[in-house]
């Protein structure tokens, strides 16, 4: 399955809550959230295509890159969500320290890299608040 990106990795976002976040900007959103500060990402035909299956097949390289970015930037946790609006959910990759946080945030008993979270599609309304609440 292909997804559309509006831009590549942004390693220094401070917009979506406390701290610095690394963000990948996805293209195409049907939520029309009030106050969205990225309306240019709504167009389903904008941006460029990336294959979700290729990301999941290459997850070990993504995990190594996440570890590298954590060391370079001093980031303490790294959770990477790839949202599939067609399947209505998100695939989650995370650093080793964040496994318990992901389990707690999304009430998951058994977890593995690339776990699919059905119904979790909003970074601002579902992912960030759940993760922040789960951090001790």
Shape: globular
Average pLDDT figure? 84
End-to-end C-alpha gap: 36 Å
Q: Give me the Rg, rounded.
A: 14 Å
- Major sheet size, sense and barrel closure: 3 strands, antiparallel
Helix and strand succession?
EEEHHEEHEH
Structural class: alpha+beta
Strand order of the largest sheet: 2-1-3
Residue runs with pLDDT of under 50 for 5 or more positions: none
Our count of helices gives 4
Brief characterization of the structure:
By secondary structure, the protein is an alpha+beta fold. The protein is built from four helices and six strands; from the N terminus they run βββααββαβα. The protein has helices spanning 52-57, 59-73, 99-105, 123-134, and strands spanning 2-13, 21-27, 48-51, 79-84, 89-94, 115-118.
Task: Explain this structure.
By secondary structure, the chain is α+β, with helices and mostly antiparallel strands. 29% of the residues lie in helices and 29% in strands. The protein has 4 helices and 6 strands, in the order βββααββαβα. It has helices at residues 52-57, 59-73, 99-105, 123-134, and strands at residues 2-13, 21-27, 48-51, 79-84, 89-94, 115-118. The strands form 2 sheets. The protein has a 3-stranded antiparallel β-sheet. β4 (79-84) and β5 form a beta hairpin. α3 crosses α4 (123-134). The model has no long low-confidence stretch (mean pLDDT 84).
Please give the structural blueprint.
Layout: E1 2-13, E2 21-27, E3 48-51, H1 52-57, H2 59-73, E4 79-84, E5 89-94, H3 99-105, E6 115-118, H4 123-134
Antiparallel strand pairs: 1-2, 1-3, 4-5, 5-6
Helix pairs in contact: 3-4
